[in-house]
Write a structure and sequence with these properties.
By secondary structure, this protein is mainly α. It has a domain of 80 residues. It has three helices and no strands. Helix 1 packs antiparallel against helix 2 and helix 1 runs parallel beside helix 3. The protein is elongated.
């Protein structure tokens, strides 16, 4: 006979795991953009993302308290990833874009001040 006690909490842990993998994806995409995005960098970051995602998956399976991997856990991870893509990704992308604009402005101001200081010295 199948036991259903605790399956909802295990499914919810998998959904949270899927959300975390989505967040990791955005973090690695941002790192790739910040580092220039060459073939070597992208390959290394893709490998690091795959290992981190597998780690999140294994951690969610281990901490969920179940007897191991179940099919509904895969469904939970997929639901978490879809929830992230449908909602949180846009919000986080907006924040990342705003931060990126601020960083660019600060870099431009620093560059202008250095150029002005060099002109005054020389």
């Amino acid at each position: 006979m199948f036991e259903t006690n605790g399956q909802a909490s295990i499914f919810l842990a998998a959904v949270y795991g899927g959300l975390m993998v989505g967040l990791l994806y955005d973090a690695f995409a941002l790192a790739s953009r910040a580092l220039g995005g060459g073939r070597t960098i992208c390959g290394a970051l893709d490998l690091a993302f795959a290992l981190a995602a597998a780690g999140v998956f294994a951690l969610a399976v281990a901490l969920s308290g179940g007897d191991g991997m179940r099919g509904y856990m895969l469904l939970g991870f997929a639901c978490g990833g879809l929830l992230y893509a449908a909602g949180l990704h846009r919000a986080i992308a907006g924040v990342a874009s705003a931060v990126s604009r601020v960083v660019r402005r600060v870099k431009l101001r620093v560059k202008k001040r250095r150029a002005k200081a060099a002109r005054l010295e020389g």
